[in-house]
Amino acid sequence: MNAKLNASADQTAQDDQFQVTDRQEGGTVVISLTGEMDYVVEHRVRDSVLTLSSTPEIDSIVVDASAVTFIDPSGIRALLIARKAAAELNLGFRLVTNDRVLRVLALCGLSEDLADR
């Protein structure tokens, strides 16, 4: 039972270390991600994108992952969901990355489809 409590505390601490901020620049929403992007925080990215993409005056979404220090398959899934949500609403989509994120996307065969540096 103690192991479960410790695991839950670790997840909460990790969730607190990850930041999602957003700002609007004209018709573009910029969603900035900072920290480790994994299964613990995937829902925060997904929910943010889905909520902001439905804003009526928005015509494009930029996800700025240049401050992401780690990304796992859950983080990649969140980015793919973001791109799909934008496409379904006929919104422009752009992902800004750093070398670390770009390397992971390249290993998955997604760098050219998803990333913009």
Please characterize this protein's 3D structure.
The protein is of the alpha/beta class. Helix content is 49%, strand content 31%. The chain has helices at 2-17, 42-53, 73-88, 99-107, 111-114, and strands spanning 19-25, 28-37, 60-71, 92-96, 115-116. Helix 2 (42-53) runs parallel beside helix 3. The longest helix is centred in the first third of the chain and has 16 residues, at 2-17.
Question: What's a concise summary of this model?
Answer:
The protein has a single domain (2-116), classed as 2-Layer Sandwich (Transcription Regulator spoIIAA). It is 49% helix and 31% strand.
What topology emerges from the helices and strands here?
Elements lengths: L1 H16 L1 E7 L2 E10 L4 H12 L6 E12 L1 H16 L3 E5 L2 H9 L3 H4 E2 L1
Parallel strand pairs: 2-3, 3-4, 4-5
Antiparallel strand pairs: 1-2
Low-confidence stretches: 1-14
Number of helices, counting only DSSP H or I runs of 4 residues or more: 5
Assembly level: single chain
The CA-CA distance between the termini, in Å, is 45 Å
CATH class: Alpha Beta
How many strands in all? 5
The topology string of helices and strands comes to HEEHEHEHHE
Number of domains: 1
User: Which fold name is given in CATH as the topology?
Assistant: Transcription Regulator spoIIAA
Indicate the mean pLDDT.
Answer: 83
Main beta-sheet annotation: 5 strands, mixed
**Amount of helix:** 40-55%
Spatial order of strands in the largest sheet: 1-2-3-4-5
Question: What's the CATH H-level homologous superfamily?
Answer: STAS domain
